[in-house]
Design goal:
By secondary structure, the chain is mainly α. Helices cover 60% and strands 0% of the residues. The mean pLDDT is 91.
């Protein structure tokens, strides 16, 4: 993605606002309950409630500075071809790419350490997280990010294309992306760097 000649701080504000305005479009069985706890009502079984508790615990560890412990707890969590926790981590990495451009501070070491902490036996997840750590975007996320930067008239369609990936994958990625963008201070000096 070409971030050059962009008003990235303005783009960040636009990105955050756009996602906030479209939260209700996220899959209710995704980790979007980290953004809006009304989604928790969708998790009814004992397994689902344990999943919510586990993901919240992992996110709170990240927020309180036990960054890599939270990442390790998040990885592999959930069901599906790529578990929700892995999709969330992918979204975090995409956000760190944007934060790097805004702050003009290299996040390569942090992204590499996130990748190492989140390595999984799931080949698809591992590959997806690896590519995100190397600033390599898959088509739907790249299209969405570029639409945000250009304030493209088709941004809503690009968002829909992204959040409709997998059962919850796109929504899980957007959740990780959004929460990282609104909590950038927590990613400046995490423990273990």
């Amino acid at each position: 993605i070409n971030f050059k000649n962009k008003d990235l701080k303005g783009d960040l504000e636009f990105t955050i606002s756009f996602i906030e305005e479209n939260i209700n479009k996220l899959n209710p069985l995704s980790v979007a309950f980290l953004i809006n706890n009304k989604f928790e009502d969708e998790f009814k079984t004992r397994f689902q409630r344990a999943f919510v508790k586990h993901i919240k615990s992992a996110w709170y560890e990240i927020l309180k500075g036990e960054f890599f412990e939270g990442i390790k707890k998040m990885k592999g969590s959930g069901h599906g071809l790529t578990p929700s926790g892995d999709d969330f981590i992918t979204g975090m990495l995409y956000a760190l790419n944007l934060i790097q451009e805004i702050n003009k501070k290299d996040t390569t070491d942090l992204r590499n350490k996130i990748y190492e902490a989140s390595k999984t036996n799931n080949d698809i997840s591992r590959n997806m997280i690896f590519h995100a750590s190397k600033e390599l975007y898959f088509k739907q996320f790249k299209d969405f990010q570029e639409a945000l930067l250009k304030k493209d008239k088709n941004i809503e369609q690009k968002f829909e294309n992204l959040i409709n990936i997998g059962e919850t994958s796109g929504s899980d990625m957007i959740t990780g992306y959004y929460l990282t963008l609104i909590n950038p201070a927590g990613f400046q000096n995490p423990q273990g760097i």
